[in-house]
Write a structure and sequence with these properties.
The protein has helices at 20-32, 48-54, 64-76, 82-94, 112-119, 145-150, 156-173, 196-209, 231-239, 260-270; strands spanning 2-6, 37-43, 99-106, 126-130, 178-179, 212-216, 244-247, 274-279, 282-287, 320-321. By secondary structure, it is α/β, with parallel strands linked by helices. The protein has a single domain (2-321), classed as Metal-dependent hydrolases (TIM Barrel, Alpha-Beta Barrel), CATH 3.20.20. Helix 8 (196-209) crosses helix 9 (231-239).
Length: 324
């Protein structure tokens, strides 16, 4: 099992500096859960370099109330340095920690070429692609009242249609490798009576772009109370030949490798026996190893100190190497 969607920082204003100690603690938590490799995939929008290129995109994207809410929220997320983040993750890899360097990249309509230019030259192993907003509406961000109340003003079918269109555009851009939480539009539990059309479009977008799809436990922490993707969508991915990763989308140590046994069950029921892992944006298939179902030790606040040895985790077994 792998955990290919991890964040070092919770949302909101806070110090944003990556450390080897925190990465070491994530690796140890993952190892205790039977996870052999993790991908650090911080949000691109948290970095000053992204703000310099993309900041203000929301100004003409929607109604003034939503644009103002997005601008305020965006500002509260800023402060990290992309070069420092990359340097520390590369140092963790050099120290033998079982990590790969990644980012979670949002869809910016009409501006994905700017995203590609911004990321060119960095030695990323994997890039996750996400759709977190429709216009300036952060539909999965239920904290700001303007965002939460917008759900009552929109038809569910319209939300799903627009979300799926953005996901298709993101996949067709070729910028990213993995579709993160592919049916995130179900986050509040609102779904069309018959979502088959949208599931078909999502699976087709992943298949024609060559992207993998993420199977994530994060949905169990949301109002919908279901993993991403829904079982019916996961089966469609399987029939379409779409590879998958597994992920927790953790933003804190306690959630690393969460529900890894339940994810393994979902994969088996859909007919998957391999996962997609990445190096230098190249995908390879790895077996879904047996996952220990004993409880993961509770987090006590301990971290791996500067003088500690890296967790003793063996190399990830490689089976098939595929093109990027």
């Amino acid at each position: 099992m792998i955990d290919y969607h991890l964040h070092l920082w919770a949302h909101g204003p806070r110090p944003l500096e990556a450390t080897l100690e925190q990465i070491g603690a994530y690796c140890e938590r993952a190892r205790a859960a039977g996870v052999v490799e993790i991908a650090l995939t911080e949000h691109l929008f948290r970095f000053r370099q992204a703000d310099a290129v993309l900041g203000g995109w929301w100004a003409e994207a929607d109604r003034p109330s939503l644009a103002a809410a997005m601008g305020e929220w965006w500002a509260s997320e800023q402060g990290a340095d992309l070069d420092q983040y990359v340097e520390v993750v590369l140092a963790a890899k050099a120290a033998g920690l079982p990590v790969v360097l990644g980012l979670e990249v949002d869809h910016y309509p009409g501006r994905m070429h700017q995203v590609a230019e911004l990321l060119a030259g960095y030695p990323f192993d994997v890039l996750l692609g996400s759709v977190h907003w429709i216009g300036a509406w952060g539909f999965d961000n239920l904290g700001p009242s303007a965002f939460a109340e917008e759900w009552d003003a929109r038809r569910v079918e319209s939300v799903w249609h627009t979300y799926t269109t953005h996901l298709e555009e993101l996949a067709d851009s070729g910028v990213c490798d993995v579709l993160a939480h592919p049916d995130l539009c179900k986050v509040t539990g609102r779904r069309p009576a018959v979502p088959d059309e949208f599931f078909h479009r999502m699976a087709e977008a992943a298949a024609r772009s060559g992207m993998a799809a993420e199977v994530s436990s994060a949905g169990w922490r949301k109002p919908v109370g279901e993993a991403y993707p829904a079982p019916a969508l996961l089966r469609r991915f399987r029939r379409a030949g779409v590879a998958v990763t597994t992920a927790s989308d953790a933003h804190r140590l306690a959630d690393v490798a969460e529900h890894r046994g339940a994810l393994a069950t979902l994969l088996a029921e859909a007919g998957y026996d391999r996962l997609a892992a990445y190096r230098e944006r190249r995908r390879r298939a790895v077996p879904i190893a047996a996952v220990p179902l004993t409880p993961v030790p509770p987090v006590t606040g301990a971290t791996v100190g500067a003088g500690a040895s890296p967790p003793k985790t063996g190399p990830l077994p490689s089976v098939v190497v595929e093109g990027s």
